[in-house]
Automatic annotation (TrEMBL):
Belongs to the cytochrome P450 family. Its cofactor is heme. It comes from Ficus carica (Common fig). Keywords: Brassinosteroid biosynthesis, Heme, Iron, Lipid biosynthesis, Lipid metabolism, Membrane, Metal-binding, Monooxygenase, Oxidoreductase, Steroid biosynthesis, Transmembrane, Transmembrane helix. It holds the Pfam family p450. It is a single-pass membrane protein. It catalyses: cholesterol + reduced [NADPH--hemoprotein reductase] + O2 = (22S)-22-hydroxycholesterol + oxidized [NADPH--hemoprotein reductase] + H2O + H(+). One of its GO terms (cellular component) is membrane. Heme binds at residue 437. The lineage of its organism: Eukaryota, Viridiplantae, Streptophyta, Embryophyta, Tracheophyta. This is Cytochrome P450 90B1. GO terms for molecular function: fatty acid 2-hydroxylase activity; heme binding; iron ion binding.
């Protein structure tokens, strides 16, 4: 290098450094003037995560949320799950977040969730791949399929569980609800019959798997998370074996059939009508087994828990379902159909109130894709955003006496809807926007049919004191032990 070149470089270098320093200072200055919501970032690294996840009654916000809302308001900043976070207990911001999915915000669950559910799980996927996976689920759970095949399947599996109950016996209502939803999903997804050894073995592995999903992500020997990863591997091998068997069966058949075929299970449907890879199908089936079993079973257990505390609701339910059963008897019919389901209007109010007060899904994980302003606050690009659905459902400014189980509030909401801001527009038990739960209609159908046969055929009461806790998933520590008695329906 010549002397002139050396002099040129020496002169240029300070200029480059000056420009870089200028941009760094300007960026810091901009950051200083960000109007972040108030809040406390907590301890280094762990932030406030431990306090946020401390167990609390599912029908409350918990001490952490109550104190933070009282101190900072419905929108505040924190450090949760190892990330800088904007927490929202505000109905308007929650709707704004969900309605701008893929534009301003995207799904952003902790890595541990993706590690155990799989990278192709619908829960963690974003963008086009999530849209394609969700489309497959929606096509399989089409309205026509719900009206025909699924009503029969849901009723058959309901009766299979309820008819096994012995009079004056005590058992876990939560376990019975889980048995019902697991058997239904296993049949629906892979045509597995309830009670047979392979179904029971799969159920055993799945229970271990679920314990790991809700446990701290500590991948050490003996921890629930490590055991769950091992069960995940066993479950995927089981599904892969079923895929191989189905592929062999399909070789001798015509590749393309009718996508509307009622008897097709999800595994067969995905193999015939999708372009998904083997790994993608495995994760899809595992994630749907998780989503379809866990949330529905807890919702049914919550209804069983709430109803005895509201005798008038239980009485009105029995009147509604007795009338449906009486009309069917006069027609000489025995099985429920879609028209019967649509007559369960008060039942839908009970379902909505159960989901509002019980809050099976407490909060969602999102991330800001760009800098966002909302009501004067700045939400920086890259920050985690936590829309807390439960906080909105228990907000006294939106729901009168929110801790009170009141199914009739949904009749009033329907009558008073006027297109403005209402409690119904803030009700989001299945999420919203482009990530609205694909199985929401099936979940409500399961609850309605189970309630139909439960209230017609049984009285029940709590055999031992228990209540639902959030940790962070909703669960009954004692399994909700109930004592049942047969009742003779006057039809």
């Amino acid at each position: 290098m010549s002397e002139s070149e050396v002099i040129f470089c020496c002169c240029l270098l300070p200029s480059i450094l000056a420009v870089l320093l200028f941009f760094i200072l300007m960026r810091r200055k901009q950051k200083r003037f960000l109007n972040l919501p108030p809040g406390d970032m907590g301890w280094p690294f762990v932030g406030e995560t431990i306090s946020y996840l401390k167990p609390y009654s599912a029908t409350t916000l918990g001490e952490f949320m109550e104190q933070h809302i009282s101190r900072y308001g419905k929108i505040y900043k924190s450090n949760l799950f190892g990330e800088r976070t904007i927490v929202s207990a505000d109905a308007g911001l929650n709707r704004f977040i969900l309605q701008n999915e893929g534009r301003l915000f995207e799904c952003s669950y902790p890595r541990s969730i993706g590690g155990i559910l799989g990278k192709w799980s619908m829960l963690v996927l974003v963008g086009d791949m999530h849209r394609d996976m969700r489309s497959i689920s929606l096509n399989f759970l089409s309205h026509s399929r719900l009206k025909t095949h699924l009503v029969r399947e849901v009723e058959n599996h309901t009766l299979l569980v309820l008819n096994s109950w012995q009079p004056n016996s005590v058992f876990s209502a939560q376990d019975e609800a889980k048995k019902f939803t697991f058997n239904l999903m296993a049949k629906h997804i892979m045509s597995l019959d309830p009670g047979v050894p392979e179904t029971e073995q799969l159920k055993k592995e799945y229970i271990t798997f679920m314990k790991g999903v809700v446990s701290p992500p500590l991948n050490f020997p003996g921890t629930p998370y490590r055991k769950a990863l091992q069960s995940r591997s066993t479950i995927l091998k089981f599904i892969k074996r079923k895929m191989d068997e189905r592929t062999v069966e399909m070789k001798g058949e015509e590749k393309y059939g009718n996508p509307e075929d009622d008897d097709e299970d999800l595994l067969g449907w995905a193999l015939k009508y999708s372009n998904l890879s083997t790994e993608q199908i495995l994760d899809l089936i595992l994630s749907l087994l998780f989503a379809g079993h866990e949330t529905s079973s807890v919702s049914i257990a919550l209804a069983i828990y709430f109803l005895p505390g509201c005798p008038n609701a239980l009485l009105q339910l029995r009147e509604e379902h007795t009338e449906i059963a009486r009309a069917k008897k006069e027609k000489g019919e025995t099985e429920l159909n879609w028209e019967d389901y649509k007559k369960m209007e008060f039942t839908q109010c009970v379902i909505s109130e159960t989901l509002r007060l019980g809050n099976v899904v407490r909060f969602l994980h999102r991330k800001a894709l760009r800098d966002v302003k909302y009501r004067g606050y700045d939400i920086p690009c890259g920050w985690k955003v936590l829309p807390v659905i439960a906080a909105v459902h228990l907000d006294p400014t939106l729901f009168d006496h929110p801790q009170h189980f009141n199914p009739w509030r949904w009749q009033e909401t329907k009558q008073n809807a006027n297109g403005g801001l209402s409690s119904s527009s803030s009700f989001m038990p299945f999420g919203g926007g482009t990530r609205l739960c694909a199985g929401s209609e099936l979940a409500k159908l399961e609850m309605a049919v189970f309630i139909h046969h439960l209230v017609l055929n049984y009285h029940w009461d709590l055999a031992e004191k228990d209540q639902a806790y959030a940790f962070p998933f909703v669960d009954f520590p004692k399994g909700l032990p109930i004592r049942i008695r047969h009742r003779t329906a006057s039809i």
